[in-house]
Amino acid sequence: QDLPEAKSPMAKPKKSRNSAPDPSVAARLPWQPSAPPLATALLISFAALLLRALVSVGPYSGQGAAPKFGDYEAQRHWMELTLHLPSSDWYRNTSDNDLAHWGLDYPPLSAYQSRLHAHLINASLPDAVALRSSRGFESQESKLLMRWTVLSSDLILFFPAALWFVWAYMKDGVGGSGERREGWTWLLAMVLLNPCLVLIDHGHFQYNCISLGLTLGAIAGILSRNELVAAALFSLAINHKQVLSYLEQR
């Protein structure tokens, strides 16, 4: 009987055709978290901030179109009213508050937010929020100040809420475990770079970033098992924009 052919000691072992590539040497995209998480989060946040700034330099609906002048005039008019009128007159039709011209139709927290921003604008450009005489007031300086009130609200409320939400969602396996947790970068980018929020708030003079930031913080509170904090934040969100009350019914 023939003996099996002896293998040469110098023979190279055959490579398995089904061998998977080593994940440690797999190519990574620049924003995938081989970098420290803090640096990655700051990079995404900076890109989101830059996008908002670029959108804010564009035109907006109602620009120069009397007598309504679009949502710019609505927000400016609410600042005018809340700055000069007592809170008892904010929602009543009076000689100083013509409800036919952008009557205030958001809950009290939104009105107090308008009042706070009105004080900031009044300190440097009082003509922009003067009672009655400022109706239809449009200037480059007033628009810049209005843009800054939106951007600062976004940075103070929505950005921290987004970071807290992503951290809470990925913590304790809620958003996956192991390699799946690397998807937090995509989740943060989707939240901060949401085109609807950016276009409406920074291209159309709105403050949805406040109510949505409070809502996102409430969700993060639930995920973090801070129910009281979540309840307080969601109550504030409803008192800023009543449209969020539909979330209660789901």
UniProtKB/TrEMBL annotation:
<feature type="transmembrane region" description="Helical">
    <location>
        <begin position="38"/>
        <end position="55"/>
    </location>
</feature>
<keyword id="KW-0256">Endoplasmic reticulum</keyword>
<dbReference type="GO" id="GO:0042281">
    <property type="term" value="F:dolichyl pyrophosphate Man9GlcNAc2 alpha-1,3-glucosyltransferase activity"/>
</dbReference>
<protein>
    <recommendedName>
        <fullName>Alpha-1,3-glucosyltransferase</fullName>
        <ecNumber>2.4.1.-</ecNumber>
    </recommendedName>
</protein>
<dbReference type="InterPro" id="IPR004856">
    <property type="entry name" value="Glyco_trans_ALG6/ALG8"/>
</dbReference>
<keyword id="KW-0472">Membrane</keyword>
<dbReference type="Pfam" id="PF03155">
    <property type="entry name" value="Alg6_Alg8"/>
</dbReference>
<feature type="transmembrane region" description="Helical">
    <location>
        <begin position="183"/>
        <end position="200"/>
    </location>
</feature>
<keyword id="KW-1133">Transmembrane helix</keyword>
<comment type="pathway">
    <text>Protein modification; protein glycosylation.</text>
</comment>
<keyword id="KW-0812">Transmembrane</keyword>
<feature type="region of interest" description="Disordered">
    <location>
        <begin position="1"/>
        <end position="28"/>
    </location>
</feature>
<keyword id="KW-0328">Glycosyltransferase</keyword>
<dbReference type="GO" id="GO:0005789">
    <property type="term" value="C:endoplasmic reticulum membrane"/>
</dbReference>
<feature type="transmembrane region" description="Helical">
    <location>
        <begin position="144"/>
        <end position="167"/>
    </location>
</feature>
<comment type="similarity">
    <text>Belongs to the ALG6/ALG8 glucosyltransferase family.</text>
</comment>
<keyword id="KW-0808">Transferase</keyword>
